[in-house]
Specification:
Layout lengths: L1 H11 L4 H11 L1 E3 L6 E3 L1 H11 L19 H6 L6 H9 L4 H15 L3 H17 L6 H11 L2 H8 L12 H18 L8 H10 L7 H9 L10 H14 L5 H4 L17 E4 L3 E11 L2 E8 L2 E7 L3
Helix pairs in contact: 1-12, 2-3, 2-5, 5-6, 5-7, 6-7, 7-8, 7-10, 7-11, 8-10, 11-12
Length: about 300
């Protein structure tokens, strides 16, 4: 996970929505009750995203727009360029491919119903998992996975995860699924494509190539010596926390929120201290009325957040 933060700093010279999405995803993970593994608690995830809307450091590729008003056509065509901010925490916190697959598909479909987006990020997730397994031919493993990944299984097991009723999904989705599955097989066979740039970059690393995409650099960085101590201590500790989740060392009861306390942050004045289920114990550092709206700088355990709200 530290390599995501380092990539954000490399791209933007500061922590942006890339770091924020990564952190809120980690915060939304909960241990499974009957299996050794972790899943996203969608009640918390949705509340984290609602809160994120008010402090997000926006960027051109930010998926924030998918929550400012749902549009079916946009949902079916949206390519989530920074999905690695959610993919990596899900993979790192789990050791079982079945759990990883289930969690990735559900989360990918939460943001986008694009088959291209789904298959590419799913294959990258499987690639990362297989790379941790000994005596496993990665390319053969990926081919076997995509050949056995059927449209029927997707709709039967994950139809409810689409944000559109599956009965309303256009027929083009079904045609697209089979076409893109063949395109991915071609890529795995070494055929160059104008599509699947992220997947092709990750595959190139297997052949000793140098990465050219963010996800490629993140994966490549994980194979190198990385001095994570240069990061803020919060992110170092968050990485240790993710490792404990992976090893099943944190009880579900310690993390699950039974009763949400979600006060309106703008209802507090400068100097006020308050408790918020997502921010924990917090304090208002500065509150201002500006031409473009109301701002409130909040100090929390994980750092300071500048919340913004339009007055119009």
């Amino acid at each position: 996970m530290p390599n995501i933060i380092l990539e954000d700093l490399r791209l933007n010279m500061k922590n942006t929505y890339i770091t924020q999405l990564t952190v809120l995803t980690v915060k939304s993970l909960l241990p499974l009750e009957k299996e050794v593994g972790n899943e996203i608690d969608y009640m918390r995830f949705k509340e984290e995203l609602k809160l994120w809307m008010e402090y997000c450091i926006e960027g051109e590729a930010s998926p924030l727009s998918t929550f400012k008003g749902f549009d079916g056509n946009s949902y079916l065509n949206y390519y989530d360029e920074t999905y690695y901010t959610r993919l990596i925490p899900i993979i790192v916190s789990n050791t079982d491919l079945g759990i990883i697959e289930k969690q990735l598909i559900k989360n990918i479909l939460f943001f986008s119903g694009s088959i291209n987006n789904l298959l590419e990020w799913l294959m990258i997730g499987v690639l990362i998992y297989l790379s941790t397994q000994k005596n496993q031919d990665l390319i053969d493993g990926l081919k076997e996975y995509i050949i056995n990944f059927s449209q029927r299984d997707l709709l039967e097991r994950h139809g409810q995860d689409f944000r559109l009723d599956i009965d309303r999904l256009p027929n083009s989705i079904r045609v697209s699924f089979e076409r893109e599955r063949i395109n991915i097989l071609n890529v795995l066979n070494g055929v160059k494509s104008d599509m699947y740039k992220n997947l092709q970059d990750c595959l190139g690393i297997l052949n000793k190539g140098m990465p050219t995409t963010s996800i490629g650099r993140i994966i490549y960085g994980a194979t190198q010596e990385t001095d994570i101590e240069t990061l803020d201590v919060f992110y170092v500790n968050l990485n240790k926390y993710l490792s404990k989740l992976r090893k099943g060392r944190i009880p579900l009861e310690d993390l699950k929120i039974n009763d949400y306390v979600l006060p309106d942050i703008f209802g507090f004045e400068e100097g006020d201290m308050f408790y918020h289920s997502l921010l924990n114990h917090s304090k208002v550092i500065k509150k201002e009325v500006r031409a473009d709206g109301l701002t409130s700088l909040i100090s929390t355990k994980s750092g300071n957040y500048l919340f913004k709200r339009n007055l119009r």
